[in-house]
Design a protein that fits this description.
- With 560 residues, the chain is mainly beta.
- Helices cover 6% and strands 51% of the residues.
- It has two helices and 44 strands.
- The longest helix has 28 residues.
């Protein structure tokens, strides 16, 4: 019996021993922490602009009581209560942890851990905000002001994002497809909204992408398509055609590409130019084309697209336009019925008319006056004969103030920088030859200069063609240059490279390139256009695409 009692006593004591040991273990695994063991002043700002990810510095103030602590353990949590993903254990005296590209969670939990590696039963937390950011610039555009074809240069502009979040800079790239970045051309600060692109080869797109504070490019970007703005410059050639055949047309010669486009008016408008092209003038953004036989003035843009049409009737008859000039926002045109008309360039209609002389041809502006050459050409076989006056019309009152007597049948005119007026009178084609005269700007005194059939002025150099027939009916042609400053002939051999130009029909000049254009005609076949340098050397020669080229008229515009 006593042995049995001893056995029960031993078992009881053993059980008590095991129970005591188990209680000790539970005490070691329980960390009842207090507010003094929790981090305070927790802060975090997401600098990752990609939605669904967070990056940035998590900071805090270490607990007041760290004597029993070894670390702070950082967890993610979506409910602010349960620990989910353990991110890092931080030494207890540290106060910062940097997150990089972590999947977004709504909370971060900061859990103290004691020296027995036991985590506390309470923790500190911070609610997170996923800053996706407005990181794409808006209103991105590029204006190409480098007008060389195939080259671009100019201002790239944009509007910076509103509510910018943690952007460090913008990077500008070229792109050929609007998606793939190609050449990196610049990095700019985020408070800047423009960048000057230096002249470079053409690209199809510009891309502007922002970087975050880690200097990583964000996924989204802005793009703009690049349009190559380039200048087209050349000459319109007005082919008069044969009178009564309704075959006037226009060609355009591109001085850069050295290419000729024929029938450009027809191509642009789907209609014929009409009968007998007479004159063209380019003014402002418009071009005015006088078609004499058809009695119409076409108003087009510089590419030949019709904007309007002026058909004027006076005393029951259609008026036939001859020659143009411009002044102070107005275009002036002579009508062969004896009138000078003023055109309102905005309304594209006749504003006023004033009677001048018979069958006026050229009109030019000088000294606040309009000078009109009255040919009287239709009266060549009548007793009254040719006209012999240049009308002077005051621009302000638009009234004729005087007539200046000149050699009969005045036609072509030019004005130099001093306001002197040069007039070619065609004479009677028999005993009175083609005569070049100068009208003094101040006194209106007329002086004979020599002989001329066609002329054009550029930089105070008068380029003159005189065509006559000798006793054997051989055509004798001279090409001269007259200096209007010194009032002397510089040379009577303008063409210096031996080029032979037969059957000249017109001469015009280019004020930009200083080229001289000579058109030829046999009145039956297409004419030729010769382009000479100011030194008299041939630059090019080509078929004009029509009969009797009346002149070459310089025009330029920007294609965007």
């Amino acid at each position: 019996m006593s042995k049995l009692f001893n056995l029960f006593l031993f078992i009881a004591l053993l059980a008590i021993g095991f129970s005591s040991c188990s209680d000790d273990d539970d005490d070691d695994n329980i960390f009842i922490n207090s507010a003094e063991t929790l981090p305070t002043n927790i802060a975090f700002e997401d600098i990752n602009l990609k939605g669904g990810e967070i990056s940035g510095d998590l900071t805090w103030t270490k607990p007041v009581n760290t004597s029993e602590l070894s670390a702070i353990v950082i967890y993610t949590s979506n409910d602010g209560t349960n620990k989910e993903t353990k991110l890092k254990e931080i030494p207890v005296n540290d106060e910062k942890y940097t997150l990089t590209g972590i999947n977004y969670a709504k909370y971060l939990l900061l859990v103290p851990k004691n020296k027995n590696n036991v985590e506390g039963n309470t923790f500190a937390k911070i609610e997170l905000k996923d800053e996706v950011g407005n990181n794409v610039v808006t209103d991105l555009s590029f204006d190409d002001t480098d007008y060389a074809k195939g080259k671009i240069g100019g201002k790239l502009t944009w509007t910076k994002p509103t509510g910018i979040v943690n952007l460090s800079k913008y990077i500008i790239y070229t792109s050929e497809d609007g998606t793939t970045k190609k050449d990196k051309i610049a990095e700019v600060d985020t408070d800047i909204e423009e960048y000057i692109v230096e002249s470079r080869s053409m690209t199809e797109f510009f891309i502007v992408v922002a970087t975050d504070l880690e200097n990583k490019e964000v996924e989204d970007f802005a793009k703009t398509e690049v349009k190559d703005a380039y200048e087209v410059s050349g000459i319109y050639i007005l082919n008069s055609g044969k009178q009564g055949h309704n075959n006037a047309n226009m060609s355009f010669y591109d001085l850069t590409a050295k290419t000729l486009s024929t029938k450009v008016f027809e191509a642009a408008n789907g209609i014929s130019l009409g009968d007998t092209g007479q004159d063209i003038i380019v003014y402002g953004t418009k071009m005015y084309i006088a078609v004499y036989g058809s009695g119409v003035i076409f108003v087009t843009d510089k590419q030949g697209k019709q904007l309007g049409k002026i058909e004027s009737v006076k005393n029951g008859k259609a008026q036939q336009p001859r020659g143009f000039t411009t002044h102070d926002g107005k275009v002036y045109v002579t009508y062969f019925d004896g009138n000078l008309a003023k055109i309102d360039t905005t309304k594209m209609e006749i504003e006023a008319q004033v009677p001048v002389g018979r069958n006026p041809e050229y009109v030019r502006v000088a000294n606040n006056n309009l000078y009109v050459a009255n040919s009287g050409g239709l009266d060549y076989n009548n007793p009254i004969g040719y006209d012999k006056f240049v009308s002077v019309v005051d621009i302000a009152t638009f009234k004729e103030t005087t007539k200046i007597p000149v050699v009969i049948n005045p036609d072509k005119m030019a004005v130099d920088s001093e306001g002197d007026i040069y007039v070619i009178s065609n004479g009677d084609y028999k005993t009175i030859p083609n005569t070049l005269q100068r009208i003094d700007a101040k006194t209106h005194k007329v002086t004979n200069v020599g002989n001329a059939t066609w002329m054009n002025i550029n930089n105070d150099k008068l380029y003159i063609i005189y065509s006559q027939y000798d006793a054997n009916w051989n055509q004798v042609i001279t090409y001269s240059v007259y200096d209007t400053k010194t009032e002397k002939i510089i040379t009577d051999k303008f063409i210096t490279d031996g080029t032979v130009v037969n059957k000249p029909f017109s001469i015009t000049t280019d004020p930009v390139n200083n080229y001289v254009y000579i058109g030829t005609s046999d009145y039956t076949n297409n004419g030729d256009m010769y382009i000479f340098s100011a030194e008299g050397k041939l630059i090019n020669k080509f078929d004009t695409g029509g009969i009797s080229p009346a002149g070459a008229y310089y025009a330029s515009w920007i294609v965007k």
